[in-house]
Amino acid sequence: MRITTMKLVALATCTTALLAGCGGRPETAATAISDSKFLGLPSMTSAAAGPVDSATWALYRDPTTIDPALAFDYPENTVVSTLCDALLRQQPDGSLTPGLASEYHFDTPTSLVLKLRAGVRFWDGQPLTPADVVFSLQRNLDTQTGGFYSTVLNRISAITVDGPDRVRLTLSGADYWLPGELSSMAGVIVEERYARGQGQRYGTPEGGAMCTGPYKLAEWTAGKSLKVAVNPDYWDPSLKPMTRQIDFRGVSNAATLTTALSTGEISGTYLTDTSTFRELEQIKNAQIHMGPSGETEFLIPANLTGVLGDVRVRKALSLAFDRNSFSNAVYGGNAVGPRMSTNPGTWGYAKDAFTAAWNAAPEPALDLEQAKQLIRDAGAAGKPLVIGTSTGLSTVNTAANAWLEAANAIGLNASLRNVSPQNYINFFTDAQAREGVDAFSTTTYGDYADPAALIASYTEPKGAQNYSGYDNPQLHAALERARTAADPEQRAAATIEADRLVMADLPWIPMVHPALFLIMDKKLTGAPSSFAYMQAPWLAKLGQGQ
């Protein structure tokens, strides 16, 4: 589970309080996407007609590592997923299929057996072995690694070789979330011999990497570009790379990215900053594709000792937040209000059950009068609310100003605390940085298509994103039922119950669920238009347009 998603895109300073005037946001109202259209967005673009020699793919910044244990944000995940394989594979529709493990099954609720696929080799020709799997998973659990995934693997009590092609995971308790985790960065397998040889250099420009994926690392110049080239011996013929070389480049400025896409210097990207959405729509040689996303925008209470400790205040803020204007300003209207707390793109199983729950849930409505009454009932009128922001981060600052306006409109005494784009991430990593701040916002997601993957991260007492110390025994019990349910329908029912408790108690306040935005040169196609690109090598499908 990643800690958070940070869109650390340094843009021009934006200090206006109005959504439509901030960071190049659209000035006119967009047509809001309907729920039915949003739930039916395609997960793939059209299949490629043939191979191409090269493509230049933009990331919102340069990757800092290609070590899967340390990958927790868009640039690193995009590159690692292109280079490496996990034990299980996330399909574009969010479902799970075998990956490096050709078979997997629970022979008891606390024992998961993985059979490794025959014939898989690392880029250097060495065969994939059970020892590589044991090493990679133990590395995630080792505090010396300093990785991000030990908490999501915390029910693994033993990892043992169980034959020439099998690995057994012994668990301290039932955990049917584990297959999802093994399809994400936590389940990526690296070559033990190579990683041990590189030590702390593994995953750096000096140490490189050794994986089994459809592409191999060709060249990495820190701060300039990272190039990957076809792995001619890739084990999976269904994902034979269609583009011979991909050059990943960090492009932090939205205006620069827009220009580079219009000139063809950049071939495509998954958009993490939509501040130039209207300009991107006008590029003649490129097309925006929308698909199911795992992302949700949240207002995150930093503590529950201040005004946000009263659920009536949290509910009042949710009622006062103008989601339509925010969606229009940030996503061109291509986001939906949170009937449930997580994006419909996270429904990787039991979709009928989740769809029914979504349709039965009320659509969030703006209601200032009810919100004001809740503030009066809570005795919170005039009480301070400090919202963390960074004027250098377009989406963050737009959200902060929208919350400021909503809070003051219902009688709170709200203010902003501005920090630099580089320091904004400290709200997520440093308790001292959160002192004196009541809330901040971000876009975040789970690592596989299950709403529980995200909910657990910020509501469980030891969740990686539970910054406020929130603790709801009823919610914990629902999540525990989901985690220990082998039957997908029972798991979905418990997860829906947990989601309803989240919407009632609002430990985090969901703002909107945006679509996924992929923009590509019209000469290219084949890339997935779903969030699966973050965890599986689907960019191998990128190739010549029809």
TrEMBL record:
<feature type="signal peptide">
    <location>
        <begin position="1"/>
        <end position="20"/>
    </location>
</feature>
<dbReference type="InterPro" id="IPR039424">
    <property type="entry name" value="SBP_5"/>
</dbReference>
<feature type="domain" description="Solute-binding protein family 5">
    <location>
        <begin position="96"/>
        <end position="464"/>
    </location>
</feature>
<dbReference type="InterPro" id="IPR000914">
    <property type="entry name" value="SBP_5_dom"/>
</dbReference>
<dbReference type="InterPro" id="IPR030678">
    <property type="entry name" value="Peptide/Ni-bd"/>
</dbReference>
<keyword id="KW-0732">Signal</keyword>
<protein>
    <submittedName>
        <fullName>ABC transporter substrate-binding protein</fullName>
    </submittedName>
</protein>
<dbReference type="Pfam" id="PF00496">
    <property type="entry name" value="SBP_bac_5"/>
</dbReference>
